[in-house]
Amino acid sequence: MIVLPAAQTPPKLHSRDEWRVVDKECRDVLPAQAKIRACLNLLSDQRLSTAYLAPINGEISSTFQSLRDYDNAIKYKKIEIERANSAAKQPSSSDEALPASFGAMSLRYMELGSLQSLNRLANFNSQSDEARQVATEEQNNYNLALSYNPMNYRAYRYRAEIHSLFCDSASAAQDMDAAVRFAEQTGDQDAARDYKRATLGACIPAWRKD
Length: 210
Fold this sequence. Notes:
With about 210 residues, the chain is mostly helical. The protein contains nine helices and no strands. Helix 2 packs antiparallel against helix 3 (about 55-65), helix 4 (about 70-90) packs antiparallel against helix 5 and helix 6 (about 130-150) packs antiparallel against helix 7. The longest helix has 27 residues, at about 95-125.
């Protein structure tokens, strides 16, 4: 009787080597369509730990965004967030990684909101019920971004726009003030100057909240 060798899982790589694989076989691949295929293939690479699933999905999302395929960009941004949340629940040997994780999650939710904004502007009538629904989802994601990082000044800026579209001028003004204040505190004087000069979108009466 012939005994076949058992299938073996490829050995795990060291962290530095894992990043090299992600760069070579996903991030640095061109053109965009080839990059998407390469990154999707890398998701099933058993050499990589599950911690790398979030950044790979993030690369896929940003590549779809560059192609203006916002539906798929949103899809993979949501998967990125799901994977990152799963990784955050795993026990870590270092408490120092926690603040960085909060900052990264804030950025991901803000990026999801901005993708929904681009999708809304590109694909929906500006005053339709569908556009209002997407705007509500945007606002929820900016709220989540700020729950992870209350100094995320870009999230305040984007949320101010939604408040203005919903005809909530008081909340919009408060968010713009916060955006300017935290941009200045963070040292991003260019953003603070731009926010001071910004003109928010006009109220859409059909979107007025009860």
